[in-house]
Amino acid sequence: MEKIIRIAVQKSGRLSEDSLKLIKECGIKFYNGTGKLKSTSTNFPIEFLFLRDDDIPGYVADGVADLGIVGENELVEKDKKVQTLKKLGFSKCRLSLAIPKGQTYIGLDYFQGKSIATSYPKILQDYLEQKGVQADIHEISGSVEIAPSIGLAEGICDIVSSGSTLMMNGLKEVEEIFYSEAVLIANENLEDWKQAIVEKLLFRINAVQKGKSNKYVLLNAPNHALEKIISLIPGMRSPTILPLAQEGWSSVHSVLSEDQFWENIEELRAAGAEGILVVPIEKMVI
Ligand code: ATP
Ligand code: MG
User: Fold this and answer.
1) Parallel/antiparallel/unpaired status of strands 155-160 and 46-51
2) pLDDT (tens digit, 9 = 90+) per residue, 91-130?
3) Would you tell me which of 157, 212, 266, 281 could form a disulfide with 118, CB atoms 3.0–4.6 Å apart?
4) Region label for 163, one of left (φ > 0), alpha (ψ between -120 and 50) or beta (otherwise)
5) 161 lines ligand 1 (CB under 6 A)
C-alpha cells in the first residue's frame, strides 16, 4: 500500500474553510465533495478525514489520524496527549465570562457561589481555581448564551468574537479568560516515514505563512539616495538595483514585512523614493 498520512480537519464550521484554504495554498490538491467524510490528495501523500472539531484531538491522540487542525480552545478542553506543531493564525477567538447586562460587576468575586453555564468546563474550572473562585459549573453543549435568561445559570463562559451574540441575549462580557487560534497538532509517536511527510508539509506551511507576512516592494529612487533607501529596506539578502532608462535613477526591489514597510514609508519618501509598489508574495522559501 502506498504510504500516506492522515489529517483530521473540521467537516463544516468556523475552522473548515481556512483549514482547507491553507492546504490548497500548500499546493495540495484533493476532491472535497459535499458530504464526503474521506478524501485522498492526488498530488501529496495525505488523506483527509472530515470530522466534528470535538473529535479531532482524540482521533489524533489515538493515532486514527496522524495530524489535525483544531482550535486551541477545543484542544485544551479535551486535554488529550498530542503535540502542537504550529499555530496557524486563523479562527482567532476568546473564551469569556459574561453576565446579564443589568448586573453590576464587581470583579471576579462576583462569581463566588454563582452558577456558570459553559461548554468548556475544564478551561473554566482551571481558571476559577487559579483565581480562587468557587462557582458551580453547568456543562451544556450549545446555545450557552440563553442559559441566564431561562434560569439555568447566573453567568456563562463561552466563545466571543464580536460580542454581538452576547448583546442579543442581554449579556455583557466581563472577563476574557482564554485566547485561541487554530493549531496543527500531531500524534506523539509518529513513525519516521510519517514524520518525513509531516516535515514536507510543515516546510510548505512555513513558506505560505512567510509569504503572507511579507511583501515585495518596488520603487524608483535617484541614485544619490540609494544608500539611505537600501538601509531602510534591507530585504532578504540585499535589494536588487536596476538602472532606469532615465539617467541618474534606479529601480529598487526588496522583500520586507508589511509592518516594516509601514514603519519606513515616510522615511522612504523623504529620501526621494517614488512610484512605490507593494505586491503580495504567494510563497517564500529562505
Ligand atoms: P463542530 O460541528 O465541528 O463541532 P462547532 O459548532 O463545535 O463545530 P464552530 O462554531 O464551527 O464549532 O467553531 C469551530 C472553532 O472555531 C471553535 O472551536 C473556535 O476555535 C473557532 N471559532 C469559534 N467561533 C469563532 C469566531 N467567531 N471567529 C473565529 N473563530 C471562531
Ligand atoms: Mg464542536
Assistant:
1) unpaired
2) 999 999 999 999 999 999 999 999 999 999 999 999 999 9
3) 157
4) left
5) yes
